[in-house]
Amino acid sequence: MNRLSPAAHSPGHPLHPSAPAAPAGVVPARVPADRAPEARALLTRDAAVVLTGHENTPDALFVAAAHLFGSRLRELFPHRVRTSRDGDPVHLHADSLDVVVDVGGVLSRRRGPDEDHVLIQCVRPAPSGGDSFAVDAYGFVDDLASTDPALLDFLTGTDVDLYGEWAGLRGLSATPRVGRHVEYTRTGRRIVRRTGGAAPLHRDPDTEHVRAMLVRFHEAVHRLEPSLPRFRLAEGDILVLDNYRCWHGRDAHNGERTARILTLRTADAH
């Protein structure tokens, strides 16, 4: 993986004493599909890797997951296909949702809040635009200690309803999922969350402060995006990400672009 330091940002709104010091952007190494041990080592080290040479089929995602994680796989969620036409940008995020559906009287989990890895296969690249970008979220959080300690305190010390903004989504649990943006698993693995669903807890006396800090977080992340290095996925390529550590997004594009997405949970997710 190449890590390229973005250019410095100018100071923002007075609410933001200074923009984050710009953690290095992530450009994942490309590894052939038949070199799973090498890909596994790079994913562990860099939090991202691109697998090349897989067939452009849904099965390829599951094969890649099996080769990468082996007996450490605990749960595979149904893969999903995303097609966009003349698509808007997708901002930096980590995949996370909590969706359970009833199939013939049997509850079935379609998405899990503890998804710790995501695989994204390029089915059809856009004719123009649509390049990917990623950032090491650990670096983002660590830089806040010097650039915006108040935001760091919020992300590490304030409980929010992680999916409260999506409360009307069918299948989403009616019970609030309470957590912090930065937490640790019981084995010491750090989680840095980034979703569009976070909201203040019901009747939180600090609701206005929480809303202001969520906006501050949103704006700080968006300021990173223009200067991050871009990389392009070719047809069939599979981008694999440590979903607890690496945020990803893509540029706007012209024409049609299609991707397959598989999220999963490993033995390291709790």
Name the features:
270 residues, alpha+beta, Double-stranded beta-helix, three-stranded antiparallel β-sheet, 33% strand, oxidoreductase, AlphaKG_dependent_hydroxylases, TauD/TfdA-like, iron, TauD/TfdA-like domain-containing protein
Write up this protein.
The protein is α+β, with helices and mostly antiparallel strands and 270 residues long. It has a single domain (28-269), classed as Clavaminate synthase-like (Double-stranded beta-helix). Helices cover 23% and strands 33% of the residues. The chain has helices at residues 36-46, 58-69, 137-147, 149-157, 207-224, and strands at residues 2-4, 25-27, 29-32, 48-52, 73-76, 80-85, 90-93, 99-103, 106-111, 117-124, 128-129, 132-136, 160-161, 178-179, 182-184, 190-192, 238-242, 246-250, 253-254, 256-266. The strands form 7 sheets. Strands 3, 4, 5, 6, 10, 17 and 20 form a 7-stranded mixed beta sheet that branches. Strands 7-18-12 form a 3-stranded antiparallel beta sheet. Strands 1-2 form a two-stranded antiparallel sheet. Helix 1 crosses helix 2 (58-69). The protein is globular, with a radius of gyration of 18 Å. The protein starts with a strand and ends with a strand. The model is unreliable at 3-20 (pLDDT under 50). It comes from Streptomyces enissocaesilis. Residues 1-25 are annotated as: Disordered. Keywords: Antibiotic biosynthesis, Iron, Oxidoreductase. This is TauD/TfdA-like domain-containing protein. InterPro entries: AlphaKG_dependent_hydroxylases (IPR050411), TauD-like_sf (IPR042098), TauD/TfdA-like (IPR003819).
